[in-house]
Structure formats: structure tokens, C-alpha cells
Design goal:
By secondary structure, the chain is mainly alpha-helical. Helix content is 87%, strand content 0%. It is elongated. The N and C termini lie far apart (76 Å). 6% of the residues are buried.
Length: 125
């Protein structure tokens, strides 16, 4: 292995681990917060659709952020792999995460649109 390649591997590996750890912490914290808030809503009784949507919308944003960070780590990690099998596995993971990200973003946009439409409709006088 050339000195430049060794330097690249030595630099990339800890960066990938750090980014993956940040994504893990972000997703874990968001899941815990959503769990606690969902319990509060349930225990309070009869949560409104708006409250539930806001809770899941917030969670979706955090998941998108975590998935984006994991995808960034995968992209960086792909720079040090030279085997086609490893690159293929990373590509498959990136595609799966990209699709998850796409559908989460679409759901978030859909919920936002419904919220804006409801706010724009004037109530009865």
C-alpha cells in the first residue's frame, strides 16, 4: 500500500466512526424523546391529530438528519475500499438509505402541506 493510501485509510477510518457515532446518538436521542412525548400524549388522553402529526413530523426530521449523516459516512468510507464487493455493498446501503430518506422527506412535506392548508382555511365566524 502506498504511503498516500495508508494516510488516507488512517484518516478516513476514525472520521467514519465518529460520523456514525454522531448519527447513532442523534437517532437514539430522537427516538427516546419521541417515545417519552408519545407516552405523555397517550397518558394525557385523546391526543389530537395535530399533536400526533407534529410529534411524528419532528421525529421524521431527526431521522432524515441521522440517515443523511450515515450516508455521508458511507460515501467517505467508499473512498478507502478498493474491492468491487465492498463498493457494491456500500452502494446497496446508500440506495436503501436514499430511498428511506426520500420517502421520509415526502411524508414530512405531505404533513406540512396538510397543516398549511388547515391553517389557511378560515374557521366559522
Amino acid at each position: 500500500m502506498s504511503p498516500l493510501k495508508a494516510w488516507l485509510v488512517a484518516l478516513t477510518e476514525p472520521v467514519v466512526v465518529i460520523i456514525d457515532a454522531m448519527a447513532l446518538a442523534l437517532i437514539t436521542l430522537a427516538t427516546a424523546v419521541v417515545f417519552v412525548n408519545a407516552l405523555r400524549l397517550a397518558l394525557r388522553g385523546h391526543p389530537t391529530n395535530v399533536e400526533r402529526r407534529e410529534l411524528w413530523l419532528s421525529y421524521g426530521r431527526w431521522l432524515v438528519a441521522g440517515l443523511t449523516m450515515q450516508l455521508a459516512a458511507d460515501i467517505i468510507e467508499s473512498s478507502i475500499y478498493t474491492s468491487w464487493d465492498a463498493i457494491g455493498q456500500l452502494a446497496a446501503i446508500a440506495v436503501i438509505r436514499t430511498f428511506l430518506n426520500y420517502f421520509l422527506e415526502r411524508d414530512i412535506a405531505d404533513v406540512r402541506e396538510r397543516q398549511h392548508q388547515r391553517q389557511a382555511v378560515p374557521g366559522p365566524p
